[in-house]
Amino acid sequence: MGSQGSSCVTCLLPPRTHCSVLISDLIQEQNLMPHVEAKDRSQAYQRMLEHAVGKGLLPKELLPSAQKALQAREDKMTTAMGGGFAIPHATIPKLKQLATLFARCPAGLDCQAMDGKPVKLFFLILVPADQAQVHLQTLATVAKFFNRRGIKTKILEAKGPAEILQLFQSN
């Protein structure tokens, strides 16, 4: 799935040398939503989860538990990282494999970020209950990727899904 020449964004070593999660492995065409419209965070998460179900990334019967787990995570503390970016993430019982999804919401949503800025970029991570290490590696990979200088601006300015995918595949 990942490109041969890219390095791990967590440790910057060649692929599969150390870490098992590459940003290029996490986003493909089926788990990319280049334009999400929502009135609030809950509706945005609902649309992301429905997209995941529709693309076969999340079993339909796990939709209610995924919604509940994401809300419980947000109730503890916002997943909005600041700078217009959020990493909603949760552990989902009975989920068999990692499910990720990237969504761009150009209008921005109030997600109670520490800097008060509206969130325009969401990287959803749903993890099986027995994969804590994968959960941590995935969070680290995503956070490091989005902390790269200029990447959020490039994604926001991308003309469509192909350009967004290229940014994930080449970085």
Strand content: 15-25%
> Level of helix content?
25-40%
Number of E-state strands: 6
- Cα(first) to Cα(last) distance is 14 Å
Main sheet, how many strands, which sense, barrel? 6 strands, mixed
Mean residue pLDDT: 88
Total number of helical segments? 6
Uncertain runs with pLDDT below 50, 5 residues or more? 1-18
Look at the helices and sheets and give the structural class.
Answer: alpha/beta
H/E series: HEHHEEEEEHHH
Cα-atom Rg, whole angstroms?
Answer: 15 Å
Q: How would you sum up this structure, described in words?
A:
The protein is of the alpha/beta class. It is built from 6 helices and 6 strands. A hairpin with a 2-residue loop joins strand 2 and strand 3. 37% of the residues lie in helices and 19% in strands. Helix 2 packs antiparallel against helix 3. Strands 1, 2, 3, 4, 5 and 6 form a 6-stranded mixed beta sheet that branches.
Question: Summed up, what is this model?
Answer:
The protein has 171 residues and is α/β, with parallel strands linked by helices.
